[in-house]
Structures
1.
Amino acid sequence: MPIEKNELRRVMGHFPTGVTVITTFSKTGELHGLTANAFSSVSLVPPLVLVCVDKKAESYPCFEASRCFTVNFLADDQEELSRRFAVSGGNKFEGVGYRLGANQVPILNGVLAYIECKLVGGYEGGDHTIYVGEIEQAETREAKPLVFYRGGYRNLSD
Ligand SMILES: Cc1cc2nc3c(=O)[nH]c(=O)nc-3n(C[C@H](O)[C@H](O)[C@H](O)COP(=O)(O)O)c2cc1C
């Protein structure tokens, strides 16, 4: 029997992750973003990453439309941003500091790191699509990460 959805969520919650906001834009140029922790490095040569996006997310069609996205790694003082981008609807960018990258995708202020990607693949992943991006530009700064573990936000203690 397949594992029940809430039980799967509970079990997966035992794997600590960082928290990202994936930003992109729609075919009409409207900015979009969603909180995501289903993110991973894929390949060094070529430099590839992946993010799994729910097919029901409002930002879902933007990935094919813009063919680019930026992965923003949240810092430990950005929990409020994570909560904001985890709720659908409205203009999530209102009152949020950001600048547009070379690809016209928002880079959020104060993030630990960002990775600008061009979309190079989309693969079936059940109710999600696995989007693979090739890294075009990336930058880091000195800060601590926001961590998600067992359904709650955590900070690294060291
Ligand atoms: C910690 C955390 C991690 C999440 N990870 C993902 C994820 O990896 N992929 C995803 O599609 N949604 C994920 N979500 C849910 C989306 O952020 C949420 O569905 C959001 O409302 C989608 O925004 P949109 O509808 O404007 O695109 C996560 C939410 C939280 C709080």
2.
Amino acid sequence: MVAIKNLVLVLIASLLALSPSSGETWAPGDRANPPRTSLFAQSAGQILNRDFPSGTISFLLLDAPTGRVLASRWDNPEAPIPLGSLVKPFTALAYGEHHGFRYPAHTCRGTATGCWLPRGHGNVDLPSAIAYSCNSYFRMLTAKMTAAEVSPTAMGFGLEPPAPGTAGPALAGLGNRWLISPLNMGRAYLELVRRRDQPGVREVLAGMAQSAEQGTGAEVDRALPYPNALVKTGTAPCTHSKRAPGDGFAIVMAPSDDPQILLMVRVHGIPGAQAAKIAGQMLRRIEE
Ligand SMILES: [Zn+2]
């Protein structure tokens, strides 16, 4: 990721010397927001399309500071679809709004308490529930929650709110009731980073760092020469015309202390933890 940062800095220096000719929207003199990533965007897009040509992989690469799309291969990224556990951070923040940002501890007993991991995650707090995407923890957290409670938080992050009447675990992305645009979801994660010092957000981001180290996003750090990412994974009902049991999602932001890019990946027919592996490989290729 140091390499990306250096590349970006070199591009800033070279592009500031040129008149803006990239076709990007950019107010001249706005030094905080120059068209710094045009060349990086072009080459990253070429690399990802060349090295990951499979039609089963969709991706969005965003510039973290601005939310601008640097490269993408995703049909209708603005059309709302089920995104599974990617909503969990926002569900947790909505819970926090109504409970003084105090999060209960919980014991996940696996299948017995409705988790995807049959043997269970044992004792979990909010960061580890994010890191391991513990469904049991989020079933507990959302047991009494309603769409009306979650909607203001969701909309505050630019997400489509859950349909009126949605309640319980569906508010944590279990099932397919809450539909959100993938592009809006990517940008909502960038907003999380902007609010990193706010209560609740700290725990969520700690969980995403833990995910990359040892949770469902561990394959991302494993793929990187300098492991340093924030990750959230999700698995959701497939929305492709050729149906699979599910689609895996991973959102990766790097570097973790000051994200410069966000990569969102969807892979047809595999769980989110495996989609994270592909996301890690993609990040590594554009970092090289
Ligand atoms: Zn669990």
3.
Amino acid sequence: MADRRTALVTAPFRGEGLDTLHRLVDVVYDPWIEQHPLRIYSSEQLAARIEEEGATVLLVETDSVKGPVLEQPLVAIGSARGDPNNVDVAAATAKGIPVLRAPGRNADAVAELTVALLLAVNRGVVRADLDVREGEAYRDGTIPYQRFRAWQLAGRTVGIVGLGAVGRAAKWRFEGLGMTVIAYDPYADDATHSLDDLLAEADVVSMHAAVTPETQGLMGAAQFARMKDDAVYVNTARAGLHDTEALTAALQAGTLGGAGLDHFDGEHLATDHPLASMPNVVLTPHIGGATYDTEANHSKLLADGLEQLLAGGKPDNLVNPEVLS
Ligand SMILES: NC(=O)c1ccc[n+]([C@@H]2O[C@H](COP(=O)([O-])OP(=O)(O)OC[C@H]3O[C@@H](n4cnc5c(N)ncnc54)[C@H](O)[C@@H]3O)[C@@H](O)[C@H]2O)c1
């Protein structure tokens, strides 16, 4: 059809959302995630690519959508993220361009990794795996049964800090493990505890808050000191929520039982950082959201939103509804 729009899609798309997209528009599909070496477009590079493809719809995940991109004749932008922080939303709004986002796309994925880290820390799974691989099951004259004793999680209490999409997805999983769940979130009506009370009561503290001026460094020396001595700290949200030095000190002092972390300041932990050699710490490099389902979820959220927009509707996941009024 002559009047079909062209969408430049640099986000990974799959499943029902990809089918919807093909029905709606001509698709130029070139996802960043398949590029080796890594390719993340600057706004200048992305603007040139949009012009080259004659695209009026843009669906991105990581590329920068600022300045020159917003000079392009776009009718819709979709950012495959809960927080579309790769898009200059204010500038898009000023240009009258609707911006869609993908809230909650990775909630189940991050919640599953949260449980994985907790189980791995609590039962020493990574250390045990290494012992087997290294032929050291009987390390230092002990049998594994002596070294790997732990409390089971069933019957213990977990405190969730931040009862949003991921926090709620983690909640029922913890309950499924037989844990009692308490929660702190000043913006959730069903949160049960103040932060101080939660820290004192929980055997596991699991961080799921957004980083805001209020939550930046929320967990510092005083907060780690309030936690039980054998408690486990899990953070699959952002390192910005804690003071890494205070966390390290609490683990070194043995006033914290262990930690599972999926994020580090600057996306990097130096190999000689003390955390990297602690046996009671399990570290993953920001892989919480990395599932194919996350991609299918954001594909559906963005494609459905685009379909509503093109039909003159106002989708729920529109970041700047004021452009339609
Ligand atoms: N590891 C990963 O790959 C990965 C992937 C997705 C999200 N995340 C992170 O996980 C966290 C949760 O993401 P989400 O999608 O559930 O976000 P969300 O916006 O749905 O939830 C955030 C929650 O934080 C709460 N909050 C705000 N201020 C608070 C405060 N002062 N104290 C306690 N809670 C507060 C909000 O009320 C909200 O319920 C974010 O930090 C996000 O960046 C990590």
4.
Amino acid sequence: MRHLMTGESFRRCGLAQRQFIRFFGCVLYVLLLSSCSTNNENGNTTATTTVSPPVAQELTLVSRPPAIDQEMKQRGEQDQAKPVLRVISPANHSKINGSTVDVRLDLSGDLKGYMPHKDPATGKGNHIHVILDNQPYEAYYELNQPFELRNVTEGKHTLRVFPSRPWHESYKNAGAFQMVDFTVYGGGDASKATTTKDGQMMAAPTKSPAVKPEASKAATSNASPTPAREGKAMASSNAGAVDMMKPLLTYRRPTGDYSGADADSIMIDFWLTNASLQGQGGDYRVRYSIDGGTPGFIDMWDPIWLTGWTSGKHTVKLELIDKNGQVVENGGYNSTTREINVVKP
Ligand SMILES: [Cu+2]
């Protein structure tokens, strides 16, 4: 009897406890919800926290910004040029000893005055985009001397090059894009410091943290009294299993930092090889997604501009997809995500 009573009271007690826990849980949940929404509101109004993105972002497609239209007019017929590049070095399928790879290019074709050169006053100008493997591109301005890819790791690599305008929109005529592969023996060691030709330290060991592009660029520009060659200490990477005969999407822009007027509308630009898009009678589409959001599609091979960016870091994903919406496999290059940093006043 006593036994039963104890058992029953125990069960009752257990029931009461469970109900209490449930009730308390609900109260906690409601409290959490309200505190979350309060935090969000604070985040929205101050916008100084590092939450990315801090506010909802609504991007809109816009046409080429008027400032660029104006610049195009001032350039005369240059934007109708059909520049043709040829990679002299590294030769396709070549073997290279050591971690520095000289890129030498030959530019020909119907140039209409197009010539890569950095204007010292503005720091801008026509340039060539140089892409090692599937890393972000590097800008190469003065073709009379080679561009040095430094600290290139051992193994197989791809190099992609194509001419660009000062606002980083690429020329898309036949022959503008070139791609080669090469293999490095005794390449760069990620644990060793990268130095300039004079042996001057230009970057800390790339192990951790990775070399910051801005830091190495700054170091290059004032490395020595004699103007240093254009070049860049490369991040560690190797070629994907790319088939040069298969459809290939080359991610170009956006990349890096955007501030001031540059952050108003940001261009997505890419190169397409062995594929035509559905708006031009082909089978393929380019799918883009910002911050992992609802994807958009590009069916004509032209740059697009998106406006409405909020301050902070954003990811941009660009993919080449087939009729069935599947990413076209080609060494992993046809699906690329880059992080950009937008700074708005
Ligand atoms: Cu560029």
